[in-house]
């Protein structure tokens, strides 16, 4: 048929032409230039204003553009000087006086001084501040203990707290405490989040919506200029696409590699990085009503769940077994003597018999996914199977993340017996203080959704919060861990190891226990 | 004709109004709120209440609806919570990308779908017809996002012919060539199902026309077969093909959501999915209303085109 002949020829010609035009130059497109690090992020940032954002994804960019008064020392969660060179804490723990670093300028050229620090905290905390409307500042409550901030002289700044608050220093090291340029806020107002200016190792260049955020080396950085010329942060929301970009060489550094994709990167061209962080994955147990009101049943659940199978098989080794409510990443506050509940179904059955319950029925809230939740559906079903093996009768109810939080945060009473949960914090105080105290029951505005209450734990946590001496705090937290592990208000499951993959040309990269991404020492050939 | 177009445009107003009610109600009814999504682990009732106040979400729903509607009529779609920028700016910027993707796919599906249908019909039961029917069945059966992932593996990871994702190269990108290189895979993946549908319906539309008397007359007059097929038959068949194309235009627009996620295409579809997950109410509402308005408008264009082509359709 002439008709068909013509069509086939045309199709061939068209195909060849497009292959030549589009395919020929393409392999070069996958190469990324030396000195420029391309980072595959999990989402578009909301804003580059550290006071306005809450997501780890945004923090990864911010930590490279800004500095705080203090920071976490490399590889630890211990606070060290940054924009402040030194500080003094009054004996009653309510006055913090910082000496600021001399000769530091913001990227826009304006000087860093005590006035700038005062501006930063007043913008966030004082509703009458002229630039308070550049918010909202959702994490401002990190500094709710701050009564006033004043510039003692040009290079000295004093914070007065309304009560002693030990986590204050580590909150200053958190992104919410990063210092922005007052001049840039005054110039850009509500648009500051897209025109950021700080004192950090990299300066902001451009933000192409939904494509990339570009930052470049700050040659005048007070802590030594970074090795890289520039860093490009690309949002790639789909984990499979992110993996494919990494394999194809389109990005040099990929964060949050899905466990199932890790085996793709075992070759020599890639390096896999892992770092346990301040994260706990646990099951909240309803201690107010139902079977888990009995401590023996709660302990039985802890013995019944096979945590090793969860971290090794379900999570493919991307997590470690949790022993108690405080993650080991807080090395100074962690009790090394704590042994996780072993997997012992026999012991679980004995405890259930001792408690006098037979086949207790429990409703289990599971989420489909969410910040820090790892692989919640697969983990939920594995846990269900473990519990049923020792005699529990578990029914799962699954919710999308925001719906899930809406069900769990107001408390489990009358709805469920247990729920999945995960937290990432920057201070050992945060999680137990918000989730284990009697004062933190949901109706009092906390996250103690399982209604755990132990006056001894309450007292220890209050005491740790007002103690300014780190050793003293550590001792108190260790006691908390012992008691809480014994009381078992949760099933302690896992501490997540954050992971990342770098390409062959990337050197000197290390993940931090804070889960921040610090790039000032990274080299790319 | 002018009054017909005007009547169609006026009749679109209640449709759009209904859409605003529905999308607002859905966003108000689904559990979870933006403050909880923003605060994550730190969503204490106290913090949520304060943030809701800052975001202006403490007013009753009916009041919020009318404020939203009133603002929108003046062209103010509000500010996105999750992106901290005006909703309309974001939509317009993203919609350009979606139009490029969906538009290319639409052209591909119209071109290749009609071509395949015509070739199939002209060779009914011949090997070309069988091959095309088989390919069409295969195309219709593969979900576009899965095809997209397979294409990434085959042509971007194994053989580095095309970039994995994005719309322009991150470094030193830009320009038409760069755009086309990024467009080939997502546009093809998106077009495949629609092409199959168009090919099937074009084939049956053509077969119906080819059986009619005027075709036999044309052949009897000695008109060249190619001319019979492409001029006489296709023209008549177009009347029933065009409404199918109209539906496919809507299909590629909605299918773009999946493809935009797989290929990280910076379009409206991906924006809407992200916005729903972060409970970015104004962005979801604004985006849905905008896309719905475009769809309604496009349907009017199709109807008008059809009435121009076929005088039997009453204006």
Automatic annotation (TrEMBL), chain A:
* GO (cellular component) term, any one: ATP-binding cassette (ABC) transporter complex
Report which residue ranges the record marks as coiled coil. Answer: none
Q: Which InterPro entries match?
A: Peptide/Ni-bd, SBP_5, SBP_5_CS, SBP_5_dom, TAT_signal
- Source species, domain of life: Bacteria
Q: Name one GO biological process term.
A: peptide transport
Please state the span of the N-terminal signal peptide per the UniProt entry.
1-21
Which parts of the sequence belong to the Solute-binding protein family domain?
Answer: 78-436
Annotated source species: Oceanicola granulosus (strain ATCC BAA-861 / DSM 15982 / KCTC 12143 / HTCC2516)
Compartments in which it is found: Periplasm
What the entry lists under PANTHER family is as follows:
OLIGOPEPTIDE-BINDING PROTEIN APPA (PTHR30290:SF9), PERIPLASMIC BINDING COMPONENT OF ABC TRANSPORTER (PTHR30290)
Spell out the Pfam families in the cross-references: SBP_bac_5
Is Amino-acid biosynthesis among the key words of this record? no
What protein am I looking at?
Answer: Peptide/opine/nickel uptake family ABC transporter, periplasmic substrate-binding protein
Residue stretches spanning the membrane: none
Name the family the entry cites: Belongs to the bacterial solute-binding protein 5 family.
TrEMBL record, chain B:
Places the protein is found:
Cell membrane
- Top-level taxon: Bacteria
Domain called ABC transmembrane type-1: residue spans? 95-301
Report TM segments. 12-30, 95-119, 131-157, 183-201, 236-261, 281-302
Identify one Gene Ontology CC term for this UniProt entry. plasma membrane
Protein's UniProt keywords contain Membrane: yes
Q: Which GO terms describe its biological process?
A: transmembrane transport
Query: Membrane topology per the record?
Result: Multi-pass membrane protein
The cross-references to InterPro entries, in alphabetical order and at most eight, read: BPD_transp_1_N, MetI-like, MetI-like_sf
Keywords, sorted A to Z = Cell membrane, Membrane, Transmembrane, Transmembrane helix, Transport
**Belongs to which family?**
Belongs to the binding-protein-dependent transport system permease family.
> What protein does this entry describe?
Peptide/opine/nickel uptake family ABC transporter, permease protein
């Amino acid at each position: 048929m002439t008709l068909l002949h013509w069509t086939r020829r045309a199709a061939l010609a068209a195909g060849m032409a497009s292959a030549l035009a589009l395919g020929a130059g393409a392999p070069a497109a996958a190469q990324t230039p030396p000195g420029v690090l391309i980072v595959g992020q999990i989402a578009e940032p909301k804003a580059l204003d550290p006071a306005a954002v809450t997501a780890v994804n945004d923090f990864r960019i911010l930590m490279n553009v800004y500095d705080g008064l203090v920071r976490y020392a490399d590889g630890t969660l211990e606070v060290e000087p940054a924009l402040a060179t030194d500080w003094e804490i009054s004996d009653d723990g309510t006055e913090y006086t910082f000496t600021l670093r001399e000769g530091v300028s913001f990227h826009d050229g304006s000087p860093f001084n005590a006035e700038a620090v005062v501006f930063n905290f007043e913008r966030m905390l004082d509703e009458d501040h002229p630039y308070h409307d550049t918010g909202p500042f959702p994490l401002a409550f990190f500094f709710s203990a701050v009564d006033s901030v004043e510039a003692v002289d040009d290079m000295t700044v004093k914070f007065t707290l309304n009560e002693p608050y030990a986590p204050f220093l580590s909150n200053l090291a958190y992104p919410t405490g990063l210092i922005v340029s007052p001049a840039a806020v005054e110039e850009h107002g509500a648009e500051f989040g897209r025109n950021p200016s700080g004192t950090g190792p990299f300066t902001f260049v451009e933000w192409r919506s939904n494509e990339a955020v570009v930052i470049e080396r700050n040659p005048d950085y007070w802590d030594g200029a970074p090795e890289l010329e520039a860093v490009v942060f690309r949002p790639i929301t789909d984990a499979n696409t992110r993996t494919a970009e990494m394999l194809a060489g389109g990005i040099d550094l990929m964060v949050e590699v899905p466990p199932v994709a890790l085996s793709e990167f075992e070759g020599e061209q890639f390096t896999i990085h892992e770092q346990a962080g301040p994260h706990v994955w646990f099951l909240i147990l309803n201690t107010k009503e139902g079977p888990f009101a009995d401590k023996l049943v709660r302990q039985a659940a802890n013995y019944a769940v096979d945590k090793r199978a969860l971290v090794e098989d379900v999570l493919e080794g991307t997590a470690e077994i949790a022993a108690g409510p405080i993650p080991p990443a807080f090395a100074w506050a962690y009790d090394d003597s704590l042994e996780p509940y072993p997997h012992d179904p026999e012991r679980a059955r004995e405890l259930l018999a001792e408690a006098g319950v037979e086949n207790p029925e429990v409703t289990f809230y599971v989420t489909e996914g969410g910040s820090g939740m790892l692989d919640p559906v697969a983990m939920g079903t594995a846990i269900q199977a473990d519990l049923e093996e020792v005699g529990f009768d578990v029914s799962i109810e699954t919710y999308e993340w925001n719906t899930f939080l809406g069900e769990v945060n107001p408390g489990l009473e009358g709805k469920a017996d247990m729920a999945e949960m995960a937290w990432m914090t920057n201070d050992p105080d945060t999680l137990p203080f918000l989730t284990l105290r009697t004062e933190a029951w949901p109706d009092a505005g906390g996250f103690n959704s399982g209604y755990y209450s132990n006056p001894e734990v309450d007292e220890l946590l209050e005491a740790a919060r007002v103690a300014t001496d780190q050793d003293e705090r550590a001792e108190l937290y260790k006691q908390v861990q012992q008691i809480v592990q014994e009381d078992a208000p949760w099933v302690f499951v896992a501490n997540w190891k954050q992971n990342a993959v770098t390409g062959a040309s990337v050197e000197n990269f290390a993940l931090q226990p804070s889960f921040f991404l610090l790039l000032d020492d990274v080299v790319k050939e | 004709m002018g009054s017909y177009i005007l009547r169609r445009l006026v009749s679109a107003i209640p449709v759009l109004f209904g859409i605003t009610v529905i999308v607002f109600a859905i966003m108000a009814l689904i559990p979870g709120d933006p403050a909880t999504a923003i605060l994550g682990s730190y969503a204490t009732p106290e913090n949520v209440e304060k943030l809701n106040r800052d975001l202006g979400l403490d007013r009753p729903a009916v009041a919020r609806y009318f404020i939203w509607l009133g603002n929108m009529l003046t062209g103010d779609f509000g500010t996105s919570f999750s992106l901290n920028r005006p909703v309309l700016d974001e939509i317009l910027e993203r919609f350009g990308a979606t139009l490029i993707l969906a538009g290319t796919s639409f052209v591909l599906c119209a071109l290749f779908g009609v071509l395949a249908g015509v070739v199939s019909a002209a060779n009914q039961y011949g090997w070309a017809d069988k091959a095309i029917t088989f390919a069409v069945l295969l195309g219709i059966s593969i979900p576009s996002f899965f095809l997209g992932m397979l294409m990434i593996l085959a042509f971007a990871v194994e053989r580095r012919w095309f970039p994995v994702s994005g719309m322009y190269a991150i470094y030193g990108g830009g320009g038409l060539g760069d755009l086309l290189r990024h467009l080939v895979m997502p546009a093809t993946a998106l077009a495949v199902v629609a092409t199959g549908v168009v090919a099937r319906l074009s084939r049956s539309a053509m077969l119906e026309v080819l059986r009619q008397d005027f075709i036999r007359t044309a052949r009897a007059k000695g008109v060249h077969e190619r001319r019979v097929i492409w001029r006489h038959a296709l023209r008549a068949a177009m009347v029933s093909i065009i409404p199918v194309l109209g539906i496919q235009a809507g299909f590629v627009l909605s299918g773009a959501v999946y493809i935009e996620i797989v290929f990280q295409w910076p379009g409206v579809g991906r924006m809407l999915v992200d916005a729903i997950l972060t409970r970015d109410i104004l962005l979801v509402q604004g985006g849905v209303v905008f896309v719905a308005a475009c769809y309604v408008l496009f349907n009017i264009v199709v109807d008008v085109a059809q009435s121009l082509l076929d005088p039997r359709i009453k204006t």
